[in-house]
Write a structure and sequence with these properties.
Layout (H helix, E strand, L loop, with lengths): L1 E7 L15 H4 L3 H9 L2 E5 L10 H8 L4 H4 L4 H7 L9 E13 L2 E6 L7 H15 L4 E7 L2 E6 L3 H4 L25 H15 L8 E8 L7 H5 L3 E4 L3 H9 L3 E3 L12 H13 L4 E6 L1 H7 L3 H22 L6 E6 L16 E7 L14 H6 L3 E2 L5 H6 L2
Parallel strand pairs: 1-10, 1-11, 2-13, 8-9, 8-10
Antiparallel strand pairs: 2-12, 3-4, 3-6, 3-7, 5-6, 11-12
Catalytic activity: (2R)-2-phosphoglycerate = (2R)-3-phosphoglycerate
Organism: Fraserbacteria sp. (strain RBG_16_55_9)
Protein name: Cofactor-independent phosphoglycerate mutase
């Protein structure tokens, strides 16, 4: 049996007036996802964000991979550190370092853009390299990542940051930053870093005029999927966060050329790499597409429809067709969390999911679609999202 998990990041939404009060998922043309829904053994809603956690891709994707965040989650940045090959000691802390755009409005600084205009990776690397002499010392290290996503490592800083409160920049679009600056234990150190970086970046041209620190935490302790289920597999994503979760889960990271995490990502390359990994012996492949979430943060319903349709036609369709060569296969399809375009931030509402098994097709009406409405109408709600993997594996 081959297993594939397909994640359209932030794909779930709420009804949008400009779309006739349908969601982007309902408005999009998605024949491949709908076909899977019409034959799925399970179609319903799942809670991927446990109570007490900020709704984010870190918690959501950890849940989908079968790990209860209440037991394993320590922060976003240490997960990304694993993807970047950064070794963390037991007392080290990783901190997410976004390049952002701040703007002054009504005598207040606001979060203009959490991604600095989706800054190209090459340009971002130059900025990080220029910041290193300003910020690094024997305790602090800066590491360049992809686009706006980078890391700060605080060696031996664990006891200094326990209880610190850090806000994700994508949670405060257009809002004043003052109430959301670092607070609590260790906040003075983070504020100092942000101020020093800002003083340096303000002297340079471009949208990246500040850094924003968040997602701090130590290395998590997670058993691999091989140890838990005897599974060998791979993860395909443009996002360090998802790749890092794959590393901790014992999955091989497949780096597809041209992956960007946006609408211009290499969809075909991802689909081809997923099928090739299964042909070469993988039991499971986890394919994550970031684009629906990114355009949701922009508040753009039409771009979200495009992202969903691209996901359907260039990821779901080719992979579903290619899986037929194996005979026995199962698919788990879902978003990791909703990102309503009207809010431009993540929410904790349950997301639609389906499980399709080639060996147990359950025909449904041709009116069934993979959508929030049809998932809710099924009456099925999985309240503990980390059990979805067990459902997929039939264990």
């Amino acid at each position: 049996m081959k297993y594939v998990i397909l994640v359209g990041d932030g794909m779930a939404d709420a009804p949008v007036p400009e779309l006739g009060n349908t969601t982007p998922l309902e408005a999009a043309y998605t024949p491949h996802m709908d076909a899977l829904a019409q034959g799925a053994v399970a179609l319903g809603l799942a809670r991927t964000i446990p109570d007490g956690f900020e709704p984010g891709s870190d918690v959501g994707n950890m849940t989908i991979l079968g790990y209860d965040p209440r037991q394993y989650f320590t922060g976003r940045a240490p997960i990304e550190a694993a993807s970047m090959g950064i070794e963390l000691g037991p007392e080290d802390v990783a901190v997410r370092c976004n390049l952002v755009t701040l703007a002054q409005r009504n005598a207040q600084w606001v979060m203009e853009d959490y991604s600095a205009g989706h800054i190209p990776t090459g340009e971002a690397h130059k900025i990080i390299e220029n910041l290193r002499p300003q910020l690094e010392d024997e305790d602090f290290e800066l590491y360049p990542g992809v686009s706006y996503r980078h890391l700060l490592i605080w060696r031996g800083g664990l006891t200094e940051v326990k209880g610190v409160k850090l806000t994700p920049p994508h949670s405060i679009p257009g809002q004043p930053i003052e109430p959301h600056l670092p607070q609590g234990n260790g906040s003075a150190v983070f504020l100092n870093f942000m101020e020093r970086a800002r003083a340096h970046l303000n002297t340079r041209a471009g949208k990246a005029n500040a850094i924003w620190l968040w997602g701090a935490g130590p290395k998590p302790q997670m058993p691999t999927l091989q140890a838990r289920f005897g599974l060998m597999g791979s993860v395909i994503s443009a996002v360090d966060l998802v790749r890092g979760l794959g590393v901790y889960a014992g999955l091989r990271v497949i780096r597809v050329p041209g992956m960007t995490g946006y609408l211009d990502t290499n969809y075909q390359g991802k689909a081809t790499a997923a099928l090739r990994a299964l042909e070469e012996g993988d039991d499971l492949v986890y394919v994550h597409v970031e684009a629906p979430d990114e355009v949701s943060h922009e508040g753009n319903a039409q771009k979200k429809i495009q992202a969903i349709e691209d996901f359907d036609s260039q990821i779901v369709g080719p992979i579903a067709e290619g899986l037929k060569q194996f005979g026995d296969y199962s698919i788990l399809l879902l978003p990791d969390h909703p990102t309503p375009v009207s809010l431009r931030v993540h929410t904790r509402d349950p997301v639609p999911f389906l499980i399709y098994r080639s060996t147990d097709v359950a025909p449904r009406s041709s009116q069934i679609a993979f959508s929030e409405t049809c998932a809710k109408a099924s009456g099925i709600t999985v309240s503990e999202g980390h059990t979805l993997l067990g459902m997929l594996l039939h264990r």
